[in-house]
Amino acid sequence: MRVMWTTSLIYLALFLIFGTEAVTVESVPAVGNGGFIQTRLDHTVSLSCSAPSAGEELQWFRDGLPVALQEGNRVDHSRLCVQPVTREDHGVIFLCQLKNNAALNGSVQLEVTFAPELSGTEEFALEEESEMTLSCESHANPPVAIVWRRNGEVVDLTEGEFITTNDGLVARLSVSRLNRELHQGLYSCTASSPVEAERTMSFQVTVTDKTMKFPRDPMIAGIVVVVCTTMLAVLARWDRIVKCCR
User: Fold this and answer.
1) Number of other residues whose CB lies within 10 A of the CB of residue 188
2) What percent of the chain has pLDDT over 90?
3) C-alpha R_g of the chain
4) Domain 121-208 is classified in which CATH homologous superfamily?
5) What is the pLDDT of residues 78-116, one digit of tens each?
6) Tell me, which fold does domain 2-113 have in CATH?
7) pTM surpassing 0.85?
8) What pLDDT score does 3 carry?
């Protein structure tokens, strides 16, 4: 029992000495669970930092890089304003600390909600038997589901030998060998988000006749051979040609 009382007194003494020694960070909107600030694109986030005692200078860091502060915004209290919030602010950590004691600090992390930037229509004219790759942005928070359609119907991956990929940044629909009947049409890429409205981008694909392409490199090589052969023949008969000209 005496040991338990002694331990409790030690903890109480430590709390009285160090309990109030902390840098506090507050924000509008308020900090949520885990130190995250939930916000949206083009909104404003206001951050304020308070030193544990008067006369102490504060420093701000954005993802480890120092933030320049004006005079009068460093001692005792310091404020930052993120306006407007952009995609690049998603996941960024703002940390405030004492200049003379980095161990005393507080931090928050921004969590920005945004949807992919999808809109408009692009047009493509591609030859039969050529490759096709359609790309649309899929980067979003929270992640979105991407659905590809052709002429209003969900793309049948097996029928047209389509290949789809999505690395979280860009979604792609590819075909290695175009066929006019199977692949020509109006395509769309639709992103569905649990918190944002659907976004769609369209692609008008026209498949044209295949054109005959001449092999340029072999043609050049053949011309070089003919020229060299002609020059050698002329040199070999040069004496006879000179005599005829006299």
Assistant:
1) 19
2) 72
3) 35
4) Immunoglobulins (2.60.40.10)
5) 999 999 999 999 999 999 999 999 999 999 999 999 999
6) Immunoglobulin-like (2.60.40)
7) no
8) 36
